[in-house]
Each structure stands twice: as structure tokens, then as C-alpha cells.
Design brief:
By secondary structure, the protein is α/β, with parallel strands linked by helices. 33% of the residues lie in helices and 11% in strands. The protein has eleven helices and eight strands. The chain is globular. Mean pLDDT is 91; it is low at 1-12 and 311-315. Bound molecules: (1E,3Z)-4-hydroxybuta-1,3-diene-1,2,4-tricarboxylic acid. Residues 39, 82-84, 137, 163, 186, 224, 263, 267-268 line the site of (1E,3Z)-4-hydroxybuta-1,3-diene-1,2,4-tricarboxylic acid.
């Protein structure tokens, strides 16, 4: 797949390089599977990183992502705009146009975005916007600006992806539940998995999903959430064991509203870089039947990202 040296820290980014030689998964993905959370970075000399970024990534190109997709056995990708590109979606749109219909995108926009820009992004394959509330990643954006954006993108049939830490859910609850679109939560709202799965924190997240049928969740990123870590990430049964009950609970209760993604190229991981092939082998531990796997990997992402509702914004 080219470029970074496996497991080294890059000089520029301060986080570890992604694997150039990931394992072939033992778990065979069902036909039509979608990697519904991954990123494209740069290349920086063509698509410069945002001046307001909180980290500088190593380049991770569309061609490298598509090589990983094919190696792991996915059919398609959902590419999510990462904070290091700010609201400049050119690298994302370029990747979507190169994907030949096999990728959709989630962009970051400001209220100054024009309808013509939204339409061009829609034509390229963008189907959502991302609102990021993780304080180490972004500066604050006023909620009235975000709500205005949500109201506008609704006209294109897009949805809102939200990224936040579990501890902030109570404060953000009213805003999230007022959003007028489908709402997709990144990484189960980043629970503290050292707390009980039926404790107050994760129960609040489950209540949030139960009370609001427009809320979906990505059950991705065990490598970010795990406290016990990848100890047995050799394809053995018990890697990231502490995350399993959390992801299983969401997959089993909300099977029609869950998505899964690699999170390649895993920005900001400083201690441990997952092998994407072995991450795929995590899936059957959280989706234990063929039916749940098919919903998670095929039915749900295709319903959300490849069902055409409107090609043009109404009126
Ligand atoms: C992720 C997680 C992270 C980064 C970003 O946009 C981003 O910069 O999402 C993170 O550092 O937790 O989903 O890739």
C-alpha cells in the first residue's frame, strides 16, 4: 500500500503510522460490506491542512484507502472529513470523484457555504455533515450556526454525524434531540469502558438511542475506547475485551441503526496502532449472527448512504 513504515512515529504528526501491510482478515465480510468510517489526508502539498488544525497527519491518500478496501474485502467506503482539513472539503471531494460511485462522504461546512457548493458536494457523493464536539480536536462553533446548517442540509436528504465524549452528552442532549435529520453518533459517543456497561453513563446513551429513533451509532473504534488494549490482537478471541459488551449491547438492541468502520488511518493514536485486518476480526465478537453482521455491514450503510432521495435540493 506504500508509504509509512509500520508502527513508527512520524516526525510531523506525533501519532503512529498506519500499517502498510495489514493482515488478511479471518472473518470474511459479507458481499456488499461498507467501511462506514474512514478518512483521507492530503496529500498535503495538493490539499493543504487547515491552519486551525490540532494535529498534523501523515498523508493518507484515496488510492491507499481503496487498496485497503480491496485488501480487507469491503466493497465501499464512507469517507468522513477529519478536523485537520477543517471545512476545506477538497481532498474529500477529490477522493469521492476517484471512487467511481464506491464512496460516499461526510463533510464539514460553515454557515457561509453556498447552495451551489452543497449541490456540488452532493453530486460528488457527500451525504452528511459532521459536527465535532471533542474539545481536544476543535474550537467551539455556536450551536445556532450548527442548527442553521442542519436545517439547510436536510433539503438535500443529508444527515448529521456527531462526535462527542460521553461525559458531555447531558449538556449536549437538548441540541442533539432538536436536530431535524437522521443523527449518526461516532464511536458510541466515546463511553468510558472502564465503567459498567449498565452504569449511569452508558445507560444514558442507550436511553438517548431508545428515545430518538432518528439516532444511529457507529460501533467503531475499539482501539480508541479500550483501556485493556490490544493485548491479544493476534486474531485471538479476547482483544479489546472491555469494549465488546458495549458494542454488543448497541448492535443487539439497535440492529437497524448501527454502522461499522475501520477509522483508517487512525489519526491521533499515540500508543498503539491497530492492524486493520485484525480489526475486521473484531466484528464477529460484537455482531454475533450472520443476520446482525449483514445489517451492520451491508443493509444499514447502503440504506443510509446509497439510497437516492433527491438529486436536487427542493425549491
Ligand atoms: C476519528 C477520531 C479522531 C479524530 C477525528 O476529525 C478528526 O480529527 O475524528 C480522534 O482523534 O478521536 O474518528 O478519526
Amino acid at each position: 500500500m506504500g508509504k509509512p513504515t509500520t508502527g513508527d512515529f512520524t516526525k510531523t504528526s506525533g501519532w503512529m503510522d498506519w500499517y502498510t501491510d495489514p493482515a488478511k482478515p479471518r472473518f470474511q465480510l459479507p458481499a456488499g460490506s461498507v467501511d462506514a468510517h474512514c478518512h483521507i489526508f492530503g496529500p498535503g502539498e495538493i490539499f493543504p491542512y487547515a491552519s486551525e488544525r490540532k494535529y498534523t497527519p501523515c498523508d493518507a491518500t484515496a488510492a491507499q484507502l481503496f487498496a485497503l478496501r480491496d485488501h480487507l474485502g469491503f466493497e465501499k467506503n464512507v469517507i468522513v472529513q477529519a478536523t485537520c482539513h477543517g471545512a476545506d472539503n477538497r481532498a474529500l471531494v477529490d477522493a469521492l470523484l476517484r471512487a467511481g460511485g464506491k464512496a460516499r462522504g461526510v463533510a464539514t461546512v460553515r454557515r457561509s457555504v453556498s447552495d451551489a457548493e452543497l449541490q456540488a458536494m452532493h453530486d460528488a457523493g457527500v451525504r452528511g455533515v459532521r459536527f465535532n464536539f471533542v474539545k481536544r480536536l476543535v474550537d467551539f462553533t455556536p450551536k445556532d450556526e450548527l442548527m442553521e446548517i442542519a436545517e439547510r442540509i436536510k433539503a438535500w436528504g443529508w444527515h448529521v454525524v456527531i462526535y462527542f465524549e460521553a461525559i458531555d452528552l447531558p449538556e449536549l442532549w437538548d441540541f442533539f434531540t432538536a436536530l431535524p435529520t437522521t443523527v449518526v453518533v461516532d464511536h458510541m459517543g466515546r463511553p468510558d469502558v472502564s465503567l459498567p456497561v449498565d452504569g449511569a453513563q452508558f445507560s444514558l446513551f442507550r436511553k438517548f438511542m431508545r428515545a430518538h429513533p432518528n439516532v444511529w451509532s457507529k460501533v467503531s473504534c475499539p482501539e480508541r475506547l479500550s483501556v485493556t488494549g490490544p493485548k491479544a490482537l493476534n486474531g485471538e478471541q479476547n482483544a479489546y475485551t472491555d469494549v465488546i459488551p458495549f458494542a454488543r449491547a448497541i448492535v443487539e438492541e439497535f440492529s437497524d441503526r448501527v454502522l461499522w468502520g475501520t477509522d483508517w488511518p487512525h489519526p491521533n493514536l499515540k500508543d498503539h496502532m491497530p492492524d486493520d485486518g485484525l480489526l475486521v476480526d473484531f466484528i464477529p465478537h460484537i455482531a454475533r449472527s450472520a443476520e446482525l453482521q449483514h445489517k451492520l455491514l451491508v443493509d444499514n450503510p447502503n440504506r443510509l448512504y446509497w439510497r437516492e432521495r433527491s438529486e436536487q435540493a427542493p425549491g
